[in-house]
Amino acid sequence: MRPTADSSWIVLEEGYDSLLECSRAARFAISNGFLGVRGARAIHRGGRWVANSRTLVAGLFDTAGEEPAIPRLAVAPDWMKVRILLQGEPLIHHIEDATGQERILDMQRGAVIGRARLSNASASGVKLRSFHIASLSQRAIGMQIILLEMEQGAIEVTLEASIDAVDIGLLSDRAEHGLSVWRTESSGTRLAVATAVSLQIDRRLVPSTVCGLSQWSWKWTSSPGQVICLARTVAMTRAGKDDIDPARGAQEALESAQMMGWPAVVAAHERAWDNRWACSDVEVEGDPVAQQALRFALYHLNGAANPADEHVSIAARALTGDDYHGHVFWDTEIYLLPFYTLTWPQAARALLMYRFHTLSGARARAAAMGWQGALYAWESADTGAETCPSQVVGPDRKLVDVNCGKQEQHISADIAYAVWQYWRITGDDAFLREAGAEILLETARFWASRTTMESDGHCHIRGVIGPDEYHESIDDNAFTNVMARWNIRRAIETAALLRDRWPESWRRLSGQLKLDEAELQRWGEVAKAIATGFDSSTGLFEQFAGFFTLEDIDVAAYSGRSVPIDVVLGRERTQRSQVVKQADVVALLALLPAEFPGDAAAKNFEYYASRCGHGSSLSRAMHGIVAARLGDAETALDFFRKTSAIDLDDRHAAIEGGVHIASLGGIWMMAVLGFAGLSFGNDYLALAPTLPAAWKSLSFTVQWRSRYLKIRISEPTAIVHIAMEAGDPMKVLVNGEMFTLSRVEPLQVKIKTLAGAVS
Ligand code: IFM
């Protein structure tokens, strides 16, 4: 139960501050992509006072019986509660005990470790140490260990371990001692929870005196220095309405964990984390704050995915909180998939398969809106139907309409983008043939039907919202249109590829989609004619038609504000201005840099970065990537630091509803795609590093078509070192020069300069 000694692997919180508990519950959440357990304290006085404790189970959506029915992640029973009474008085956390309390997120081991001294009003006390995990090696398993050391003797001690399922909103199907099965009212999805609890006093197993359906209780008289160990294992399994009874799976998982014993379960979990870290760690020398931020990001990213489940994806707050109800946005494909594709392709594949399995929902949505092909939901849950609410409470507590569900359609191109990147990076042809191609073709078909050829000879996409959600019902959003064009072109390329390399797959798929040459040709014409808003005389993309005529507000003049800029300016004025909520043209520049010829990249960055209010946690990461690629490492570092602060700094209260997983993905992207300048071509990986002055070196691992590469960029010597741990020789482009890398010989390239190098 001792935490990792190296401080860059831990997040430490000392003392107890009830006002910060909700944020800390998110920050200290543990997750394995199936179970997410918020880091609320287990010790409680009774009742349901710990409002921020939550266990969330991926895919367990329910609609809470409201109209319109919006699926939300249901809350699973809280399996970690413990109540300790000394002489009948419950122990609680006291603010004044601050010095005796610490909680550590041990990111290396994927565990939360606590230490506290708890006492009651008569000053009888215990020393407490706690440890809990959501097993990364057996995703059904959660485990909690509590060690108590009694300070005084002759005290009557009561210890209760319970599972709290009051008001969780699930229907009970079965309840036995240590086993319960629950059902969501709307979808009939079931959740089985099997639990085993044991208590040892001075290493002697003691049977519980009370054994309720979900309660275990012990009573004894203390002796000074007595050591008590409570070990609880929970196994949770989810099953669809028509699947077999999940109870059996939960019981089997529990039995297997019990057979192993908790030290072996913990050891297997730690080995699984070691493996994830070996594949994904990023090391920065010279900047401990950045190092910790990277580890924190990687910890949550590695805990958010489950390669074994193709029917769930990662929500905007992963499994760490209730904000956005567990809904999946473009965050996953644009901000998370780069990390998974390059470090954990199995997880990336499962996430893309979720989009494949929800294609029918996307087709239904396009059809319902009068278009063809597949229009993915802006907010997606279990079926792929649109789950974006049509109204929310605004910052001024008034109801505001939300049009994203109808108009933020770039999501379809974003998913196609992630599919293509995954295939190009992994070379997973089976995925392309069996799932990816269908996504690419159906999203392209949507765009082709969504555009209208008008009298000016251009195809227009009217009435959308781009990533900058301050401006609604706009025409020809550059991000949407250029991504749509790219989507159509990749679909045409995919069709040609299938036809040539896998004619049988092409026959099957084109037959199934009723896709013929004439339609493909039409798509080509649409792609050629799409309006993009690019003006070759200025090198600027106009964010949408008419954007340049809007009021130009000096965003820098509002830099001291404590609320988003649209709150300061008011919604109407913001909409009439060039103030941008988040990276929009800049996001396009980060995703498709080849669309920005000559000095257009620098010009667009300069124009749009100064007009951005960063009203979304997603915004700065895209700016950071682009700034680094443009050679401005210090500006990029500023974006990196501000993004890191979103979830690690207590001044950002919005973390209560869960960590911002997209911005955590963005932290990895800034390091690898920005500072290291990683990109790829048809048959090579490319690096064009630009490190901030404070970073003495940057090291990371990526996978490229079944090869494992370890890359280190060191500033004092300006050397890029690449070692290949497995796989056939491959080409690597470093600062524009091509090299061949093999397993036998690592590559060592001396480059001219790092800081300030323009890629
Ligand atoms: O997907 C984002 C969107 O871009 C901005 N608002 C929050 C969403 C979820 O993170």
UniProtKB/TrEMBL annotation:
Positions with a binding annotation for substrate: 330-331, 581-582
Record-annotated active site: 469
A GO term, aspect molecular function: hydrolase activity, hydrolyzing O-glycosyl compounds
InterPro entries (alphabetical): 6-hairpin_glycosidase_sf, 6hp_glycosidase-like_sf, Gal_mutarotase_sf_dom, GH65_N, Glyco_hydro_65_C, Glyco_hydro_65_M, Glyco_hydro_65_N, Malt_Pase/Glycosyl_Hdrlase
All residue ranges annotated as the Glycoside hydrolase family 65 N-terminal domain in the record: 13-236
Lineage: superkingdom: Bacteria
Pfam families per the UniProt record, alphabetical: Glyco_hydro_65C, Glyco_hydro_65m, Glyco_hydro_65N
Any single GO BP term: carbohydrate metabolic process
Protein name: Glycoside hydrolase family 65 protein
Source organism: Paraburkholderia polaris
